[in-house]
Amino acid sequence: MHKLKALLGCLLFVFSFSALAEMNLTLTQGVSGAIPIQINNFTGDAQNITSVITNDLNNSGKFKSSSSNGDAILKGNVSSAGDKYKINFVLLGKDSKPLLNQTMTVSKDQTRQAAHHISDQVYQTLTGVRGIFSTRIAYILVHGGRYSLEVADYDGFNPKPILVSPQPIMSPAWSRDGRKLAYVSFENGSPQIFVSNVGSGARTSLSRFPGINSAPAFSPHDDRLGLVLSKDGVANVYVMSLGSKSLQQVTSGNAIDTEPNFAPDGQSLLLTSDRGGSPQIYRAALPSGQIQRISYNGNYNARASFSPDGNQIVMIHSGDNTNGYGIGLQDLQTGAYLTLDNSGDDQSPSFAPNGQMVIFAQKTGPNRQLALVSTDGRIKLALPSDVGEVQEPVWSPFLN
Amino acid sequence: MLKKLFAVSAAAFILASCSTTGSDANGTNPEGASVQDGSSGIQTSGVGYGNDANLTNPNAMVPGASQRYFFDFNQSTVRSSDMPSIKVQAHYLVSHPSASAKLEGNTDIRGSREYNLALGQRRADAVEQALALEGCSKKQLSTISYGSEKPIATGNSESDFAQNRRVDMEYKSH
Fold first, then answer.
1. Beta carbons of A264 and A221 less than 8 angstroms apart
2. Is B115 close to A16, i.e. CB distance below 8 A?
3. CATH-assigned architecture of domain B65-173
4. What is the pLDDT of residues A156-165, one digit of tens each?
């Protein structure tokens, strides 16, 4: 159609400069039970490896670092090896018991990733849980009349734009292999779903029916895409087979049904529906489409997603005991509910791939910003940007 | 916080501003949709909403003029106070068969952005239906939702939220 041709004529591959501000992760609330760890400056460290590791472990809320004492001691050294760096690190436990002793060789532009890898190793060794320090986040930055889909390290460092547009971009969703992002773009005048390869930037149109095409969600094996279409009159949830592009309609009726999110076993999905009068969370079995209500707490529950183990869901929540909109966590087995944050205008929660933290967007001032909270609600972090509004964060899968 | 310049690599797509929809798609009426001086002067063609001076549709009764219809929280029912304006616009469309208008649905900025996208569509569809019931052909109308992606008021007050709960009617041809 002529609109699409006109747009293709305007797509530019350009080398240009854009001002992108990094966001710095800041712990705003920690816990008193943090593990004390002594971190010695790595000898020969001119690359800030020690400080990246220190920030990672402190920002997890699970550790409190010092230079002089701890239940564990981390030390290491950095040396040049040709045109690369050789990094050796040692983690000692109680009574100087050696827990880790590893050496890695990395190229000169990989030292930050190396530091994050060391943090991952230390975190897993001392907590038993896999660390997320090598993961990434995607989000939408709104600044200067432009919308930008960005990918950054989990701590906000090294942001990189995947798509920049004069029209809105919404609902980024990582593929399970971490290589692609699906999202909604208004570039052709109405909301359509595209997918971009994060590394190469190559993009494909996935869905452009009349009306709404939105809320993309990859299935656990990346073979299907949950999505929302309004082509038949009202927003309904569908599942598209990514091989054949065939569509299966999951919901029907006059209610708004949206925000599909696959269970880890791919056999069901969560969705938001107002069929009961106001938005609540439902679960649809696949392929039968049989639907069961999940949320009963409060009069507004939306944007639910499963924890990696499938036992909990996180969602936007509002109710009698809430100040405006907050973030809620529900245990699917016990039904127990916990408010993780309640600043009045919270949205878009997303689990870390180790299930320990949730990233979300909140508006407490003129601009929406990112924040993180642990799934017990006790550890809080801020990830502010000084450039513009930041919205719709999604945490990547494990990437290594 | 340091601002850093980053080279945008070939991996990023940058879409140029050649949108065919118009960048001021929200259709802000240049005469102003608000009466800020607090006067209680009579608006001969406009419609106001309660005590919020920001919620006005000054050209409500002007056939073929841009319109702005407001909605209650989480509702998509066209207000009965908007029906006189709807009738005027419907009759204009009937008597001008080459006229066409776009109905753009919006919501306030809180809550789920995807639910808001669907709610904005529902609001645009409701205005379309109201116009159709007054006799105009749906062939002269198109609907789109921006959900909460294009707010005109970005504050955190009830007045800000109320200004965003709206359908903008923009004539594309007369």
1. no
2. no
3. 2-Layer Sandwich (3.30)
4. 999 999 999 9
